[in-house]
Design goal:
The structure is a single chain. By secondary structure, the protein is α+β, with helices and mostly antiparallel strands. It has three domains: about 325 residues, 2,3-Dihydroxybiphenyl 1,2-Dioxygenase, domain 1 (Roll); about 55 residues; about 60 residues, no CATH class. Helices cover about 45% and strands about 15% of the residues. It is built from 18 helices and nine strands. The strands form two sheets. It has a seven-stranded mixed sheet, sandwiched between helices.
Length: about 475
């Protein structure tokens, strides 16, 4: 049998497009937000010709309107492990372990994403997947109800399971690859037909809104897709001006000249109509709100030293002006955030020199080894222009920010938090594989780019070179 001509990157791009089309049809306000973000990006490019030139050179311009990630929530270890196998077909591996218990959310998570610069450039789409932690459900009866429901559902179509098995045994041909994308996308569609009665839904929702969202429906519907904003502050203001009810704040670091990590915000979830199946067989109309639209702006990936500084400054800002659950003191919180982050260097060269962020190196094609001093340092090569350094974009997620987005879209204004109880070992057992270390990925990318650049300059044997 012939193998599919579609690469994992191509399948991922096809899948992202299918998910985008599906979600736009399901959530009209997301479709409106996509148009709004596209317009703000267009205006930003018109105002900043240099930015447009950089995006064009990096290949980012043609992907500007492509969704960057989606998020789902699943209920069982079997669901998570099968998703790992499904995403592997599209070149998406689990990266990082996220403990959301610190924000009172009974889930822990990973991000399925492409690995490496070329794969990310081909298609940047990733999925943030959160697994229910039943041990965090204090109500024993609610926990038992949820377990019984989850034990009897299958979130995958029979054909999707067949195609996953076929891929692992002998690969897929072109026809099967196209069919796989269609069947995989079905896993994440919205189904307004609940699989529980209204009474069970209310019981689980009262226990925790996230529990109801995970358990009461046929599958892990996409709860949000995320667009890339060139200026998230402008896009956030535009959302408010168009009545989209955005979050009170932009999660993550404050606005900076040299962006770091991840900034994200969203419009709050709208209620979707739902039909409940009552105990006597009747259909009862109701509603469920958990699906929304999100925008993000990404900056430089930080080193361990940079991340420690970021975490400290964020904690100081939160201690100075704790954000109200309804965002009522957003101005005070944002002011505290800006004050504290004044201590974080805000230019690319300082971030590199002080080893606060990771950089991707490239050689100047015009440089010749014979013209360079073999005792030069990386700093020297950068200064004379033989070497260039650009911040490596952060491709992962921030637990505090993710939790903030989750809570604001669950209608959950309770302020309680669980005692922090990360359990990476249990998560990886459910996943059926270890999660990759995001920091190791960034460190490897930086070192490989530097080594390749020095080799191209004929300086790979020089021992004095230090980044």
């Amino acid at each position: 049998m012939s193998q599919s001509s579609a690469s994992a990157d191509a399948l991922r791009a096809m899948f992202a497009l299918a998910i985008s089309d599906m979600y736009q049809a399901e959530a009209p306000q997301y479709r409106a937000m996509k148009a709004l973000v596209a317009e703000t990006n267009r205006q930003c490019l018109a105002d900043e010709p240099q930015l447009k030139r950089r995006l064009l050179e990096s290949g980012e311009l043609e992907r500007l309107d492509v969704e960057r990630h989606g998020a789902i929530r699943i209920g069982t270890a079997e669901e998570l492990s099968t998703l790992r196998r499904l995403f592997a077909i599209m070149g998406m591996a689990p990266v990082s372990y996220y403990d959301l218990s610190v924000a009172g959310l009974p889930v822990h998570s990973t991000a399925f994403r492409p690995i490496g610069e070329s794969a990310m450039r081909a298609s940047p789409f990733r999925i943030f997947a959160s697994l229910l932690r039943p041990d965090f459900i204090a109500d024993a009866q609610a926990r038992e109800i949820a377990a019984k429901i989850l034990a009897h559902r299958d979130i995958f179509t029979p054909r999707c399971r067949e195609l996953i098995d076929l891929h692992e045994k002998r690969g897929l041909d072109d026809e099967e690859a196209g069919e796989f994308v269609i069947e995989a996308a079905k896993t994440f569609r919205w189904n307004g037909q609940a699989i529980v009665s209204s009474a069970v839904y209310r019981r689980l929702y009262a226990t925790h809104p996230l529990l109801a969202d995970i358990v009461c429906f046929k599958g892990p519907h996409i709860n949000h897709l995320t667009l890339h904003a060139l200026d998230i502050d402008v896009a956030h203001a535009a959302m408010a001006a168009h009545g989209m009810n955005p979050k009170a704040i932009i999660e993550g670091p404050p606005r900076r000249r040299c962006p770091i990590l991840l900034r994200q915000t969203s419009f709050k979830a709208n209620a979707d109509p739902v039909d409940f199946v009552e105990e006597d067989g009747r259909r009862l109309s109701g509603a469920h709100a958990a699906r929304f639209g999100e925008i993000e702006q990404r900056g430089a990936a930080l080193t361990a030293k940079g991340r420690a500084l970021y975490d400290r400054l964020l904690a100081e800002a939160q201690a100075e002006a704790p954000l109200a659950t309804d965002g009522a003191n957003a101005l005070a919180y944002n002011a505290a955030l800006a004050r504290r982050f004044a201590a974080f260097p805000d230019d690319s060269e300082t971030l590199r020199r002080e080893k606060l962020a990771h950089f991707r190196y490239s050689p100047d094609a015009r440089a010749r080894a014979g013209e360079l001093a073999f005792s030069a340092s990386v700093d020297d090569l950068l200064r004379i222009g033989a070497l260039r350094a650009q911040p490596i974009p952060y491709e992962d997620f921030l637990p505090v920010s993710a939790a903030g987005i989750f809570r604001s879209n669950l209608g959950d204004q309770r302020a309680e938090a669980f005692i922090e109880r990360a359990d990476r070992r249990a998560f990886e057992a459910a996943l059926g594989a270890p999660v990759l270390d995001e920091r190791a990925l960034y460190e490897d990318e930086e070192q490989r780019s530097l080594s390749a650049s020095l080799k191209a300059l004929g300086l790979d044997a020089v021992v004095a070179l230090q980044p």
